[in-house]
Design a protein that fits this description.
The complex is a heterodimer of chains A (100) and B (413).
Chain A (H helix, E strand, L loop, with lengths): L2 E4 L3 E4 L3 E6 L11 H9 L7 E8 L4 E8 L4 E6 L21
Chain B lengths: L2 H8 L18 E7 L3 H13 L5 E4 L8 H4 L3 E2 L6 H15 L1 H5 L10 E5 L2 H16 L4 E4 L1 H7 L15 E5 L3 E2 L2 H14 L3 E3 L4 E7 L2 E7 L2 E10 L5 H7 L7 E12 L7 E4 L4 E5 L4 E8 L11 H14 L8 E11 L6 E4 L5 E5 L9 H14 L31
Parallel strand pairs in B: 1-2, 1-11, 2-8, 4-13, 11-18
Antiparallel strand pairs in B: 3-7, 4-6, 5-6, 9-10, 10-11, 12-15, 12-16, 13-14, 14-15, 17-18
Helix pairs in contact in B: 2-8, 2-11, 4-11
């Protein structure tokens, strides 16, 4: 059985993990057109080589990222999302809504 | 015995003709360049040459004819899909398959032995009833069958009520069939080459030349070619080739694994699949049991065989056919499937003028080979998108008009 190293739980069987898709920076919710959203949601780089992707350790619901070679199936490293996300992606409204 | 054959066999010098283009230099210009010498590429070339009079065509294949996913699929032909677009498209393909040996004057070993999909839950029965209704409405032979009919169709199936997932009902598809996949590619390529198409093997496309949003050539490992149009038919490498033309595709590549046992006397007539235990089994005309349908759980460009899949496929196959316990496995292999988000192909126009897409064939490419050749050739020759493939255009993803083809794979969903 292939093993994957979870940043939280250490080395575990790959059957304990769920693949979560390629990593792409999240588009700006306020300004992105629906065409660009379609591309973000449906389209993939599908690179043959080293990619960054999301994985989840299913029993503990812990999401993290992995650098993996899609030609050889070798995992270069795994790391927690705080390396790529330094601030919340949810943009809070600065002005509270007022009722007319 | 036909005397022609006897005479042929006794001739000292066999009057054998080359089926395909003998090795020769690439020309400077072709009207159409087809990237990928598999079933689809050869079918497009055949239809261009035979029905549209377009013969200045080159098929560029990086390896050898029909050596990619054409050789790796498990040769299942069926049309019991769920969406109207899907059923209409695949049923046309099954019709063409039925006449393919006559069309080529070349035996593709088409055998209409039917296909049975098993339901092990109420939810599956509900979805099968839905599929049967859609299929019958569109003229495809599909019907919901009960346990007794299943036992008659497949006498050696494990019908025990004590099984982990007892069989409750089935979807019987009398149009289901199989054919020799290599012969399909060879038949199309032979017919194309006889009419002037050039097949160039060991010719890899390294770059695609685009000027002012329009394709006008390809760079290969054997030199640069100019051309009026390019079509890519490279299942398993669609994203890589499209990227050379600056086109992104909604595709993820997953290996799909299958295996065969040693040969036995004929004891299983139809193709049997179970979405619940994730396996399909059929017996080839050579007697081997093909056990298939194991998609790897994450994307990969690697056709290695894994012990994980061998275990899960074997366990599932034994659950349906316990008599296989003593069978020895001869081979296990993988093909790279181009999976789209909606389980439907991507065919037709691309953002680059005169660059055509024949991609996203996931696990449903072989059965679509004949209709794909007809429709793509019509598109390239006339510039008009045939109605049958209009719903499968790349642009559908931008309009959020996916074709959710839940009947796409025999063993999943």
């Amino acid at each position: 059985m292939k093993l994957l190293s979870c940043p939280l739980n250490g080395l575990r069987n790959i059957s304990e993990f769920t693949y979560g898709g390629e990593y792409h920076p999240t588009p700006d919710h306020q300004t992105t057109s629906s065409r660009d959203w379609a591309e973000h949601v449906f389209f993939h780089d599908n690179t043959a080589g080293i990619v960054i992707e999301w994985w989840c350790h299913t029993p503990s619901s812990f999401w993290f990222l992995a650098e993996r070679n899609t030609l050889t199936d070798e995992v270069v490293r795994t790391f927690t999302p705080d390396e790529l996300y330094t601030k919340s992606i949810i943009q809070h409204e600065t002005k509270p809504e007022t009722t007319p | 015995m036909p005397f022609g054959l006897l005479k042929y066999g006794l001739t000292k010098k066999y009057p054998a003709k080359h089926h395909f283009t003998p090795e020769k230099a690439l020309k400077k210009h072709y009207d159409v360049v087809i990237i990928g010498g598999g079933g689809h590429g050869a079918a497009i070339a055949y239809n261009l040459a035979k029905y549209h009079g377009v013969t200045n065509v080159a098929i560029l294949e990086k390896s050898y004819l029909g050596g990619g996913n054409t050789a790796r699929n498990t040769a299942v032909i069926r049309s019991n899909y769920l969406t109207e677009s899907g059923v209409n498209f695949y049923s046309e393909s099954v019709k063409l398959y039925n006449n393919l040996s006559n069309e080529f004057n070349y035996n593709v070993m088409m055998e209409s032995r039917g296909q049975l999909t098993l339901a092990h839950s109420d939810a599956a029965i509900r979805s099968f009833r839905w599929r049967a209704e859609v299929n019958q409405h569109l003229g495809v032979r599909s019907e919901l069958v009960d346990r007794q009919s299943i036992a008659e169709l497949v006498p050696n199936l494990n019908m025990s009520e004590d099984a982990r997932y007892p069989i409750m009902a089935g979807l019987w598809h009398a149009d289901g069939a199989t054919a020799r996949h290599d012969a399909v590619a060879w038949g199309y390529a032979k017919g194309a080459c006889d009419r002037g198409v050039e097949l160039h093997q060991l010719t890899e496309v390294e770059d695609i030349i685009i000027a002012n949003g329009r394709v006008n050539g390809v760079k290969t490992n054997r030199g640069t070619i100019h051309c009026g149009a390019v079509v890519q038919a490279v299942a398993g490498a669609s994203s890589i080739v499209a990227k050379k033309a600056g086109i992104a595709l909604p595709i993820h590549c997953y290996p799909l694994q299958a295996m065969v046992t040693q040969p036995y006397k004929p004891i299983l007539t139809p193709h049997v699949s179970s979405p619940q235990v994730h396996v399909y089994v059929h017996q080839t005309s050579r007697g081997e049991f093909v056990i298939g349908g194991g998609s790897d759980p994450y994307p990969l460009y690697n056709t290695r065989a894994t012990l994980d899949q061998r275990e899960t496929l074997s366990a599932a196959a034994l659950e349906l056919f316990p008599f296989l316990t003593q069978a020895r496995l001869l081979r296990q292999w993988a093909g790279i499937t181009d999976m789209t988000p909606d389980y439907s192909p991507i065919m037709g126009l691309s953002p680059v003028k005169n660059y055509f897409l024949d991609a996203g064939w996931g696990t449903w490419g072989f059965k679509a080979t004949p209709i794909c050749g007809v429709t793509m050739a019509a598109l390239i020759a006339t510039g008009k998108v045939p109605d049958l493939i209009k719903p499968f255009e790349l642009e559908r993803f931008y309009r959020f008009e996916q074709i959710n083809e839940a009947g796409a794979t025999a063993a999943s969903h």
